[in-house]
Specification:
This is Alcohol acetyltransferase. The chain contains 13 helices and 16 strands. It is an alpha+beta fold and about 575 residues long.
Length: about 575
Amino acid sequence: MHSLNVYYGCALTCRYAIPAALRGAQAEEALKAHFERAVALAVLDHPLLQAGLVGESTKDPVWVRLERLDLRHHIQWQTISCNSDKSLSNSGRMMNAVLEDTIKAQHDTPYPDLETRPGWKMVVLCAPDLNYVEAFFGINHANADGESAKMFQQTLLEKLNLTSTSSLSAPDDALSGLQLEGHVLTLPPMPQSAFTPAHETLVGLSVSPVWAVSVVLNQILPSWLRSHPLRNLEWAPQRAVPVRTALRLIEIDAEALRRVLDACRRHDTTLTGVVQAMVVTSLAMRTRTHTTTTRPGALPSKKTLPTSPSPIVLGTPVSMHRYIRPNAAAAAQNPERIMVNSVTYCFHHYYGRRLASLYDLAGNVAQDNDEANHERGCLADNAEINARRLEAALWEQAARVRRQLTEKLSKGTHNDLTGLLKFVPDFRGRMAEEMAVADRPRDVTVEVSNLGVMNGEVISRPKLPLQAEVDGSSVASLAAEKEGVEDFGDVAAATSRGDHDDQDQKWIIERAMFTQSGIPHGVALLVNAIAVKGKRLTVSVNWQSGLIDEEVAAGLARDLEVWLGSLGRGDHISFSNRAKSG
């Protein structure tokens, strides 16, 4: 996908609180040196961050061992200064604004010289009057996935905290084997047996012939004969254009997150389930006046609700790291800490009567909102009834998503789509052929990717993936998956075990933000979630700027913010506050 300029990868950005000894303008150079050393140590823990990729544009790309890395090609520093108002609030606002621009710019930039530079990069933002840095870590999807990005940030947190709080010097055993001079990291020899194996080697994949044939037939049959027919979306055409990422961010504090999760439990669902349900409900409300396109790239036009709305396909990426076999892991690698692209998909289809019913309910509420706004009055009793009916339908869909994810997880690796990749001799060529088909519908309307929760402090060496997660779908403990329930622990509880002075001497992750690049061909909208234990949940919404209808995309982000906010206050979902234009 990278070489086809379709998708450049994902990123996890973490806000790190800086120890007191490294704060301020006078300590900036020491801060940079300390951070670079920690990154170098983290890279040595993960072989795929040390490898080049040769033949990316061929059907047989290969990883190659590199002898050294110039970290100046991978780590970029930006110092943000406030010229007028020196207040911390102003500096924080500037930091957030620059960070959003940085994330979008980095997602729009491909990884250069992959033969000699591994496909990862960092941008670190700092400000002399702020006690934290924002560390963007981006990764080419060929190297690793979102779960792996979380592993890297957890590894980096450990390495940052190796330093003695009094002397700022790391213990000798921690630096054993580190050869870093003039920003150039010399990589130690690595036998092939120590390199990260391929996904199909790490994860046992079995495929039954009958299932494989059914999947192939569903791909080659005419669209009207397929089990889940697709049509073009007027608001989300596909075009061969440069990647331009749009971004909206939503933050839910720890106490509000607790209430959201409590509501999910009461309705027999998870965070991923309710977000998926909110997504399809928002689309039903915002696209109810759209019809399918009559030509590729047609501009949206408001028309009456079609008698048969275009099917909506939601996707949930499901981490397969949980299925990595210990005996398949490379020598000297912890199976639970392997950075690799090992992810599959769970699809949620909406069409026919189910979708038509949702459109009707959403249409009634949207009409009630329009009338209420026009008259500047309160919603009538009938309008309130319509809103509660739509909310009940939303929770019903959320529970359905949970059941589908539970069923997906119960099957393990048997009859998984990734098991069919070995039968595709030229995957890149196949993708290029599909992109060349005029007026091809998008396979997935919206993807909801939930990385769960990560520890913001190093209390003991973390076991990854964490056993405390936000839900039982994309990232969850194995015990919870078997039961089909959440196992997120006390997400909103404080994790601090020391006093304030002790905290002042440690590196702490205060916020995490998972994002992805825009996709001209493929998924129309990407919704990404991650929480830091004891702190906030961050949800990002990404899409291809200039191609996806801004009213639909930004409006969906606004709906998620308002609706999650309602649940966070312990209220009913407030459809009446839905923003019209985002």
